[in-house]
Write a structure and sequence with these properties.
The structure is a homotrimer of 309-residue chains. Chain A is an alpha/beta fold. Chain A has 12 helices and 11 strands. The relative contact order of chain A is 0.16.
């Protein structure tokens, strides 16, 4: 199964997903085996919205496959964007230089537009309030590794569910699997969108909204925390939402020992645990999650830039 | 013939130019043959004025030759420039680390100054209103590939001819060849400078200024469009010049089928063609032109950093 | 002797220092021998405070050892820092991608904090008014190469001794050696801190403060000039300090022919010598000093990222 461009998480079939999981597991164990598979290939990372973490994850993934990278850290301010050039023209030109493009943009739909004019594979690394499909991929991979399955589990999404594209992307992906129960816990002003709810209904996924996080904690396998996205909402909305739903020493032990906390990071006050707990308690999975991003992106780049069917 | 530094397009003799054309053609056909010729070499790109396109083109060129790159995307704001350091000191220091320097700066004459103190080859990637000689090189290469010759042709330069360093650089280069007829079409307030006109006269090139673009379109082999450089002129000058000379569906078919539109890109409203035309009509050459930049810069870096005589 | 993280210059024992000097000398002579020693390794450079020179020096060092680099030029503005993320979380996450981290930050103590959560070696590339230990390392290496010894000499530190972390780091390092006489010459408002004076006393180093630079110039082996750090002090302090202590044609010849001027660079008006002198007079050592930074950082990275005992 080929993946020409990767724009939204719905593109991933279960087969493809398990193929990536398997490759990522193998890469983790046999890193050296993969150290030349993209030798001679060049990846361009075009970031119109800064994201050190995501960019460095993609770039390290490319380098560890033997490829190389050209990069722009803040295309919005530094590039021809200020001269009035369309993002499509940039993508088209860069697709004449590089073998693949990773694009992050502040506007929804940008990655798709880029893919329409690009001669080389385009990967969406986040487009405004749209999607962040490689995050969904690494989230799914983390769930699979941490609880041993991607079906038959309960997950609670907590926090800013209105602007969070990682939640949106992961929900679209979970819609492909069976017996998943989803709970949404968010401030009144940052509830999950109706597009997601309709999608989940259409795919027969069980979901509900709750307002008491502590009541839910003991019941779920995955707690997916998110940050209130201060930079995308009004000051009033932020003030109303901040600190509303928090994991700290007060409620941490309500979580079952086999359950896991995920977070797309960066986390701020919504997780407030002492360093010892964060480093040693198995239930804290978000740093393993971020490292999974490296291996799963290696699997993705290997397939897409290696043009494997 | 050695090329120690590349500061202005006049340095290119016809022999050297054809050598680069030949190498670029060979690189295009036999990319793998060149994948190690600069192995172990490091190129530094020092951009005091952001230009994602030019920087990525140079960097990809270096990587595809097996070399590696260190880069600064916005040296003006990020570097010791804010501490009061002279650009020459930066260049001198960096020339102690790297094997070559590509410099882009907002002030005319900077690349030359850098070359005087650098221990390694310096390439001018645009210096204020001065020159952009590698653009001239890729423009000449594009003309050669598109119409099969770099002599005996007619070219019209359209747009902001006052601040456009690409036009200046290309004119200096065309002065080396025979039977070229040059027409300048520009808003009243952005006419070509007298330095260029004197240079062309001295080299016996035929040139004239015209004010009706449509009258010219059917007559020339190359239409070289340029953007009104908003960021280098006053608001008044911009308002007077914007939208004055445009290629769109209304006049596109005045262009002969063997003729070609070039543009150094980014283009904005001066070219306004539907996507289908831009992608499929042979007369639109500017995306091929930008890709030629990769191959010709590979030829240039190979010679200069490989210290080929 | 292993060096897990490199946070402050006091970590360097004389044995370790001489080991680095020896390796750096060998690298200089036999560059090709080292071109693959870090093949497959990835270095992350996290710069929260821009410094083109230091960053490019580290990055080139890594590339010349066969490794590769992921980089952020201005993490302060571009990264999750603006989303409220702690630097420690960034370091922890990046330590899951890369094999080593070089960190530059505007706050004292940051590199140490990063080292506490990182899985991979952390190198301090300057932390606020704290330390800049790799600068001390290259300074010591330069003294050793230029005058043939790192003991039994006289050094004057000139300029902004209050905010200068390079002076602080070098003093801490010199405290490990014998028979060094230190003189401090600085504007009244930018004197060396009492922490350094106490440290030197404790280590039985001879030091004194003087106010007449010209009186000292003929007496010392090393003149270590520093820039008044405009960006770290008030306008009043800057006005009072600027131009107070300068090396120019007027006093240059007071310097003994075997003595050397060092400067961590960038230099501004505190050194005002004609280009001919700067390029040809042996006493001007600061451009050799900056190049020494490349070789000594190669020695450092080779040891730390190669995990050599």
């Amino acid at each position: 199964m080929e993946l020409r461009h990767f724009i939204e998480s719905q593109q991933l079939t279960p087969e493809l997903l398990f193929e990536f999981f398997k490759t990522a597991d193998d890469i983790r164990e046999n890193l050296a085996k993969y150290s030349n598979v993209l030798s001679g290939k060049v990846l361009a990372t075009l970031f119109y919205e800064p994201s050190t973490r995501t960019r460095l994850s993609f770039e390290t993934a490319m380098l560890r496959l033997g490829g190389s990278v050209v990069s722009t850290e803040n295309a919005k301010e530094f590039s021809s964007a200020i001269k009035g050039e369309s993002m499509e023209d940039t993508a088209r030109v860069v697709s004449g230089y590089a073998d693949g493009i990773v694009i992050r943009h502040f506007e929804e739909g940008t990655a798709r537009k880029a893919s329409l004019v690009s001669r080389v594979p385009v990967i969406n690394a986040g487009d405004g309030k749209g999607q962040h499909p490689t995050q969904a991929l690494l989230d799914a991979y983390t769930i699979y590794r941490e609880i041993g399955r991607i079906e038959n589990f309960k997950i609670v999404f907590v926090g800013d569910l209105a602007s969070g594209r990682t939640v949106r992307s992961l929900c679209y992906l979970l819609g492909k699997f069976k017996n998943i129960e989803i709970i949404f816990v968010s401030p009144e002003n940052l509830k999950i969108g109706s597009d997601i709810k309709e999608y989940l209904s259409r795919h027969n996924l069980n979901f509900r909204e709750e307002s008491d996080l502590n009541k839910i904690l003991g019941e779920v396998d995955i707690i997916y925390m998110t940050r209130i996205q201060k930079e995308r909402i009004s000051e009033e909305d932020y003030a109303a939402a901040k600190g509303k739903f928090v994991i700290d020493e007060g409620n941490f032990n309500l979580i079952k020992s086999a359950s896991r906390i995920l977070h797309p990071l960066p986390h701020v006050e919504e997780i407030n645990l002492p360093l010892g707990l964060e480093q040693n308690d198995k239930r804290v999975a978000y740093f393993r999650q971020s490292q999974n991003g490296l291996f799963i992106r290696m699997a993705l780049l290997r397939k897409m830039l290696g043009h494997l069917a």
